[in-house]
Design brief:
Structural class: alpha/beta
Radius of gyration: 31 Å
Number of helices: 9
Oligomer: single chain
Bound molecules: uridine-diphosphate-N-acetylglucosamine, magnesium ion
Strand content: 25-35%
Largest sheet: 19 strands, parallel
């Protein structure tokens, strides 16, 4: 059986008033990426024939985030029905009966927890038993602000009533609409064009098309989906709720893939965090976007990582900070209060305590002593520090970049290094020590005399 083709329309133009935010609602992050990016990822495996995202004016950041999906601008937030009507302009010529697209899938940009498998089930259900409209339904514990699916006497769905417009009896209905529906392309213009604004918010509600379809005798059906995938994020509290659900999902996936999370609920992951087998993560670690951890590495408590790549059997933390561009090869050790940014530590290198390594290269097996700083910034530009293999950098060394330290060199503790060190050289760059026997006692005696 040939797959019926569908266009996906994602609504993201709403002002997101309830978030009380300067940034568009769908750009608020969950597990380190904008809400709308999760939705697009869930959509991808179902291979829509076209994807159109409806954005508001001045939402260029949303347009960039959803690329290569097409965007259309809804000039005024006149409601979800108006948003769909705006999106249809982009696919008009491609819709059946003239075009190749049989169905329109409408998704709301504020439902980031929807899984691709669930979406696939909805599409399969429509193929199995086609309806003019197939609604993704759910039964939340608290139906709160969701649209209620009002039943007809025969049990089928009659229409959707928004919470704000519901009578007390309708408000008590437990079956709600979860923010996704499939609409047969044949009927879509007829239904959307018939919408009005006679409701509590004076908006064109997309949900109004359901009652119009049943009035016309068109079949409308509900497919119930897991409520934890359909949470609509309208407030900061719902954002936190969605984050918590996403985190437990990601932790579960990591553990299923062979990662030990000693205290899973204290570890924060990003949607793109990648782990090898037998990685061990101690309690209280945060993985920002773009982190990969290879097999057998151990990430100790209170470490914060983003944009970092960690080699096999490496050891990070406790209290380490890996910033974007940190690359630790196999068996590297980065210990407490060490910060690494745009720097590669080759295999077996160690920086165990109190160090900043930025814009640098550290050769294999090199040891960086406590308190070492790469002075990479002169107030205007960043400069690089290149340290060779098997180098020993004594404690409290300042490496003033740009500077190079040759293989096998030793740098004495407390040095301020400003020029190149050749391989196997010893470099001492600090004030020479002067000892004056008995001088301390003399000073004390003099000061005591003065204070008498
Ligand atoms: C909506 C539904 C409700 C459903 C719930 C599921 C309507 C009228 N109500 O309520 O039945 O249970 O979602 O989560 O559809 N948007 C636009 N342009 C607009 C208005 C909204 O693009 O003019 C976008 C928003 O950015 C958002 C989505 O549409 O991504 C839904 O809008 P929202 O205001 O969140 O609707 P809800 O009140 O949550
Ligand atoms: Mg919503």
């Amino acid at each position: 059986m040939s797959q019926s083709r569908f266009a996906a329309i994602i609504l993201a133009a709403g002002s997101g008033t309830r978030m009380k935010s300067a940034i568009p609602k769908v750009m608020h992050p969950i597990a380190g990426q904008p809400m709308i990016a999760h939705l697009l990822q869930a959509l991808e495996p179902s291979r829509p024939a076209a994807t159109v995202v409806v954005i508001g004016p001045q939402m260029d950041d949303v347009a960039r985030t959803v690329t290569p999906a097409q965007t259309v601008v809804q000039d005024l937030p006149l409601g979800t029905g108006d948003a769909v009507r705006t999106a249809l302009q982009a696919v008009q010529g491609r819709l059946a009966p003239q075009g190749d697209i049989d169905e329109v899938l409408v998704l709301y940009g504020d439902t980031p927890l929807l899984r691709s498998e669930t979406l696939a089930r909805l599409l399969t259900e429509q193929k199995r038993s086609p309806a003019a409209i197939l609604l993704g339904g759910m039964r939340p514990a608290d139906a709160g602000p969701y649209g209620r699916l009002v039943p007809a006497p025969d049990g089928s769905v009659l229409r959707i009533v928004e919470a704000a417009d519901a009578t007390p009896e309708e408000y008590a209905i437990g079956l709600c609409w979860g923010g996704l529906m499939l609409i047969r392309a044949h009927h879509i213009f007829e239904l959307i064009d018939a919408l009005d604004r006679n409701n509590a918010k004076s908006e064109f509600y997309l949900t109004g098309i359901v009652g119009m379809a049943t009035d016309r005798g068109l079949p409308v059906r509900v497919f119930e989906l897991p409520v934890e995938e359909l949470i609509g994020v309208n407030t900061r509290a719902e954002l936190a709720e969605a984050e918590a659900l996403m985190q437990s999902r990601l932790r579960r996936t990591a553990m299923d893939a062979g990662v030990t999370l000693v205290a899973p609920e204290t570890v924060y992951l990003s949607a793109d965090t990648r782990f090898g087998r037998d990685v061990l993560v101690e309690p209280n670690v945060t993985f920002g976007p773009g982190v990969t951890v290879d097999e057998g590495a151990r990430i100790c408590s209170f470490s914060h990582l983003e944009g970092a790549s960690i080699g096999a059997h490496a050891r990070v933390g406790p209290f380490a900070r890996l910033r974007p561009g940190a690359v630790l090869d196999d068996e590297v050790h980065v210990g407490n209060f060490v910060e690494v940014k745009s720097a590669r530590l080759h295999a077996g290198a160690k920086a165990n305590h109190l160090t900043y390594i930025g814009d640098a290269e550290v050769g294999a097996r090199t040891n960086i002593g406590a308190g070492t700083i790469t002075c990479n910034y002169d107030g205007f530009n960043k400069h690089r520090t290149i340290i060779g293999e098997g180098v020993f950098i004594g404690s409290n060394t300042a490496l003033v970049a740009p500077v190079t330290v040759g293989d096998g060199a030793i740098v004495a503790a407390g040095s301020v290094i400003t020029s190149e060190i050749s391989p196997d050289a010893l470099s001492v760059a600090r004030g020479r020590q002067v000892n004056k026997p008995g001088r301390a006692a003399e000073i004390r005696a003099r000061l005591r005399g003065k204070n008498r």
